[in-house]
């Protein structure tokens, strides 16, 4: 008898394609996405964008920059990218432009090597602490500054052996009782040779094991971190999660709400409505308007909750929220309309929407910040509504950008909404007079 | 096109609708006059609903024409002159009766006091005044049917199409629905009424068209249909006890047929009963019961469309 019950359940499952998709395709899709996000291959781990400003222009600072540039997990830029291909190369970053670039979200970290760093590059020594490097960071990315600090120490150790030795000699000179003129001459001679090797590039790069061994035992540079974005934010990631989770659930709500179209088609109400003065275009537009408003209110509730419970600074960003909220709600509502128009039953809609929404949310950054994903996945995120919406909300709530800075996200989301709605209208022709 | 007061309320001429290889409606012509109720009868899949949907403009015919007061089906003028009560309960289940009527009224372009008056009239017509605030999904089957009918009446159409409006309702609600439709007829409305219940057609319809395989196979008043199918003939039903095979053999010999020990014959004169019973006695059959029945609409329907199951 138990077998008969199991057999009946198996037959029912085989007939239910939606359940089959949810049972087998969705887990595999998710597994693949997270495997890709979390770095299935070493080559695909995310690279940290680092802006470097070398105010010192000393031998030591140049060596440090060179070593940082040779780090495979960093993308080091000393000047902004040229706007056009043949345009003249822009000027190097200054401390101010680097800070502005971090504030604009162009890079999560900027390193400023101050003047005089080359004279006292090492954090310890008889002359007191060395010159501090300044790290300007964006608090929304908690990992990038840590990676940069770690790599800075590594680069310092491997790129500036002469400085390390010099500082060591100063220690010996001060605490051992001073060198004799003969000893001093020998030390200087050795240091000069080391500096020559360092300048010639024979040492100072950190890309193979022998170089690393050669530099082992060197000292550490001092780094002062300063948050230039999010320093006054009470809850650093709240706006990110309000947007990320908000958009994901908006997608679910929108597709569920648009599914009313299928209920109406099944009950005959849709056909009856279309026999009145309401045309299919007007009907879909009406539903799109409702679903857009519903999604907008849902987003507003999400952000208000963030404000009330998690101290999200909502009321200082009302204009930006309104613009991004409306565009996101519009795109999401159109997405729901398309799914509902394309599906034939509620079960089909449930399976397809769950599959698409979870994949879009994973790739688009609703579950896992995109800046932590490999490059290819970050780019794939731009194919999703989630990706553009989260970027826009981050610009508003994290980077405090004006509404005018949202033109890219607004354009893309509105375009997505329009295209999806036009396609939905076309697909919905099947409900029109046969 | 404007509605012409002089034009026929509904005129269908040589209508043809094909779905691939299937001809759902095959050269159908019919008219409905003001204050007249035309019954459409036919087995499942005969093409009734496709015909109704063609009149509403929800199906684009391959040939022929539908005119509602002279306006083409699907035109705004035709839509405003037509009211359609589909077979399905095509209302919004999660909103109240009043809200449902308000929505459909607005879909027909009604606003303000005109809409309020239309809602009030429909609630009264459908005897739903005391349930106006009830969610549609919480209504009984009969009430939901009446709400379904009322939703097609808001714009006060002059031609109504009722597609099996009494499916699944109790006798009391059915009776109420008959009264509602009779009231409309009395006001001069042109009505098409499709049903599988012959007694409904006999009660409500002035004329009846029987449709099968997409064609009108008979049309006229009930008496005309009976006359054309059976002339002056009557049915004799004679129930016997005994051997079923012997009963069947005897019935076949005299042009009848047997179902559950009851032999059925068609006779022209009532006096023929005596001859039949005499023959039965001679054949050794023991008579238990005999009745004479005048043919009715159901007899006509089964006579014309056959007794085989259609779905």
Q: Can you offer a commentary on this structure?
A:
The complex is a heterodimer of chains A (434) and B (311). With 434 residues, chain A is α/β, with parallel strands linked by helices. Chain A has 17 helices and 5 strands. Chain A has helices at 2-15, 17-37, 59-69, 95-103, 143-159, 161-175, 181-200, 209-215, 238-258, 260-267, 269-274, 280-310, 318-342, 346-364, 375-380, 385-397, 407-427, and strands at residues 48-54, 74-77, 109-113, 133-138, 223-229. A 5-stranded mixed β-sheet of chain A has the order 2-1-3-4-5, sandwiched between helices. In chain A, helix 3 (59-69) links the parallel strand 1 and strand 2 (74-77). In chain A, helix 3 packs across helix 5 (143-159) and helix 9 packs antiparallel against helix 16 (385-397). Mean pLDDT of chain A is 81; it is low at 203-219. Chain B is α/β, with parallel strands linked by helices and 311 residues long. The two termini of chain B are 41 Å apart. The radius of gyration of chain B is 23 Å and the shape is elongated. In chain B, the strands form 3 sheets. Chain B has a 6-stranded mixed β-sheet, with helices on both faces. Chain B has a 4-stranded antiparallel β-sheet with strand order 2-1-4-5. Chain B is 36% helix and 27% strand. Chains A and B meet through helix 11 of A and helix 2 of B.
List strands and helices in order, with pairings.
The complex is a heterodimer of chains A (434) and B (311).
Chain A: H1 2-15, H2 17-37, E1 48-54, H3 59-69, E2 74-77, H4 95-103, E3 109-113, E4 133-138, H5 143-159, H6 161-175, H7 181-200, H8 209-215, E5 223-229, H9 238-258, H10 260-267, H11 269-274, H12 280-310, H13 318-342, H14 346-364, H15 375-380, H16 385-397, H17 407-427
Parallel strand pairs in A: 1-2, 1-3, 4-5
Antiparallel strand pairs in A: 3-4
Helix pairs in contact in A: 2-14, 3-5, 6-7, 9-12, 9-13, 9-14, 9-16, 12-13, 13-14, 13-16, 13-17, 14-16, 16-17
Chain B: E1 10-19, E2 22-32, E3 37-41, H1 48-56, E4 63-68, E5 71-72, H2 76-81, E6 82-85, H3 97-107, H4 112-125, H5 141-150, E7 159-163, H6 171-186, E8 190-194, H7 198-204, E9 207-212, E10 215-220, H8 222-230, E11 234-241, H9 244-253, E12 257-259, E13 262-267, H10 272-282, E14 286-293, H11 297-305
Parallel strand pairs in B: 3-8, 3-9, 6-7, 7-8
Antiparallel strand pairs in B: 1-2, 1-4, 4-5, 9-10, 11-13, 11-14, 12-13
Helix pairs in contact in B: 3-4, 8-11
């Amino acid at each position: 008898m138990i077998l008969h019950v199991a057999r009946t359940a198996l037959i029912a499952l085989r007939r239910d394609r939606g359940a089959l998709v949810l049972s087998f395709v969705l887990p595999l899709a998710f597994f693949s996405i997270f495997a890709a996000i979390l770095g299935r291959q070493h080559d695909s781990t995310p690279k940290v964008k680092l802006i470097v400003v070398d105010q010192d222009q000393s031998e030591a600072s140049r060596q440090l920059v060179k070593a940082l540039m040779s780090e495979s997990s960093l993308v080091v830029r000393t000047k902004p990218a040229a706007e056009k291909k043949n345009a003249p190369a822009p000027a190097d970053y200054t401390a101010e432009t680097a800070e502005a670039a971090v504030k604009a979200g162009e890079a999560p970290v900027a390193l400023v090597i101050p003047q005089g760093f080359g004279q006292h590059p090492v954090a310890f020594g008889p002359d007191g602490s060395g010159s501090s490097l300044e790290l300007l960071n964006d608090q929304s990315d908690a990992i990038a500054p840590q990676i940069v600090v770690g790599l800075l120490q590594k680069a310092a150790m491997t790129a500036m052996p002469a400085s390390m030795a010099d500082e060591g000699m100063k220690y010996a000179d001060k605490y051992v009782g001073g060198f004799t003129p003969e000893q001093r001459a020998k030390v200087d001679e050795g240091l000069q040779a080391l500096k020559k090797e360092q300048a010639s590039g024979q040492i100072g790069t950190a890309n193979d094991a022998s170089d690393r061994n050669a530099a082992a035992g060197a000292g550490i540079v001092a780094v002062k971190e300063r948050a230039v974005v999010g320093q006054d934010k009470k809850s650093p990631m709240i706006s990110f999660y309000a947007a990320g989770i908000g958009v994901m659930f908006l997608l679910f709500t929108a597709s569920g709400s648009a599914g009313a179209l299928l209920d109406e088609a099944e009950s005959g109400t849709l056909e009856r409505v279309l026999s009145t003065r309401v045309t299919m275009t007007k009907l879909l537009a009406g539903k799109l308007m409702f679903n857009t408003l519903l999604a907008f209110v849902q987003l507003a509730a999400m952000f208000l909750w963030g404000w009330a419970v998690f101290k999200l600074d909502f009321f200082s960003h009302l204009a930006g929220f309104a613009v991004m909220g409306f565009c996101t709600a519009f795109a999401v509502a159109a997405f729901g309309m398309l799914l509902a128009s394309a599906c034939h039953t509620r079960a089909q809609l449930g399976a397809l929407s769950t599959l698409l929404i979870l994949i879009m949310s994973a790739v688009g950054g609703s579950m896992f910040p995109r800046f932590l994903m490999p490059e290819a996945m970050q780019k794939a995120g731009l194919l999703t509504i989630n990706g553009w919406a989260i970027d826009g909300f981050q610009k508003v709530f994290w980077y405090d950008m004006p509404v005018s800075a949202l033109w890219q996200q607004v354009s893309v989301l509105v375009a997505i909404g329009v295209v999806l709605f036009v396609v939905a209208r076309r697909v919905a022709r099947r409900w029109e007079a046969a | 096109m404007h509605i012409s007061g002089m034009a026929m309320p509904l005129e269908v001429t040589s209508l043809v609708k094909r779905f691939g290889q299937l001809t759902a409606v095959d050269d159908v012509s019919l008219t409905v006059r003001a204050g007249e109720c035309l019954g459409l009868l036919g087995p499942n899949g005969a093409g009734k609903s496709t015909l109704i949907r063609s009149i509403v403009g929800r199906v684009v015919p391959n040939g022929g024409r539908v005119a509602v007061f002279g306006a083409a089906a699907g035109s705004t003028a035709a839509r405003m002159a037509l009211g359609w009560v589909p077979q399905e309960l095509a209302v919004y289940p999660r909103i109240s009766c009043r809200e449902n009527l308000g929505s459909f009224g607005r879909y027909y372009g009604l606003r303000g006091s005109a809409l309020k008056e239309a809602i009030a009239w429909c609630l009264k017509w459908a005897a739903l005044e005391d349930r106006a605030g009830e969610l549609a999904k919480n209504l009984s089957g009969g009430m939901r049917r009446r709400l379904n009918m009322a939703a097609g009446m808001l714009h006060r159409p002059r031609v109504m199409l009722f597609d099996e409006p009494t499916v699944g309702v109790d006798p009391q609600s059915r009776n109420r629905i008959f009264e509602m439709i009779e009231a409309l007829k009395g006001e001069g409305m042109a009505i098409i009424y499709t049903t599988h219940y012959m007694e409904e057609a006999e009660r409500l319809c002035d004329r009846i068209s029987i449709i099968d395989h997409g064609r009108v196979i008979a049309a006229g008043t009930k008496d005309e249909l009976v006359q054309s199918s059976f002339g002056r003939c009557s049915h004799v039903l004679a129930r016997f006890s005994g051997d079923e095979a012997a009963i069947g053999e005897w019935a076949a010999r005299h042009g009848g047929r047997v179902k559950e020990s009851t032999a059925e014959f068609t006779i022209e004169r009532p006096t023929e009963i005596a001859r039949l019973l005499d023959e039965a006695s001679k054949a050794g059959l023991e008579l238990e019961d005999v009745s004479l029945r005048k043919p009715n609409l159901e007899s006509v329907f089964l006579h014309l469309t056959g007794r085989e199951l259609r779905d």
